[in-house]
Amino acid sequence: QLDQLPAGHYQLVPDEQDTYANLAGAIEKLGLDCIFMPPIVTDYLLTDSVLREAAFDLENRGIASSELEHKARQLYQSGYFEQLLEQSPNTLSVGEQQLLAVTLALNQAQPMLVGQYCFDFLSEANLRLIEDAILATGKVFIDISQRNHGRRWKLDRLMLMELDDPGTATDHPSERPDTL
User: Fold this and answer.
1) pLDDT tens digits along 126-166
2) What pLDDT band is residue 91 in, cutting at 50, 70 and 90?
3) Which residues contact 1 (CB under 8 A, 6 or more apart)?
4) Which residues pair with 8 in a beta bridge?
5) Distance from CA of residue 103 to its chain's centroid?
6) Where in the chain does DSSP place strands (E)?
7) Which of 21, 87, 90, 120 sits a CA distance of 20 to 30 A from 156?
8) Cβ count near 105 (within 10 Å)
9) What strands lie across the sheet with 152-156, from one edge to the other?
């Protein structure tokens, strides 16, 4: 059942019905605390630097102005973005922007995140970076995706059911090169 999923990334295969609306309805019915990511996760990025992105989120959560920069730097400490703090998110590659948006969303209080096609254009290596970040936070991320990557799931009322054919790990059909 959705409210008993262990931490991790769940790739939900869309069906002929509106999978996103059905999933949102199931989450609402169970009363789960969740973040719904925008279809284009880079829409989540609003400021002029990677550091200010984290500070913006922290400020919205009520962190005192005097602590914002310190706490924002802590968020990125010894991580992928540690050397990119002053860089504008607009100058990052699409893969880096996706990684940044998910990193910030994972630092919100909600234990579950839901997105549509959030990771479809990432290479397997970059997808593993995001999946590691999801596991490190102990959260559940359900992504509705056409991508054929590892274990895949379908929604059946209030439950996720694993599909019999887990597929093979492949890059997105567009064959885009890795941009992260």
Assistant:
1) 788 888 888 988 999 988 877 665 566 676 666 666 665 44
2) very high
3) 30, 158, 159
4) 140
5) 7
6) 8-12, 34-36, 112-116, 140-144, 152-156, 159-162
7) 120
8) 22
9) 34-36, 112-116, 140-144, 8-12, 152-156, 159-162
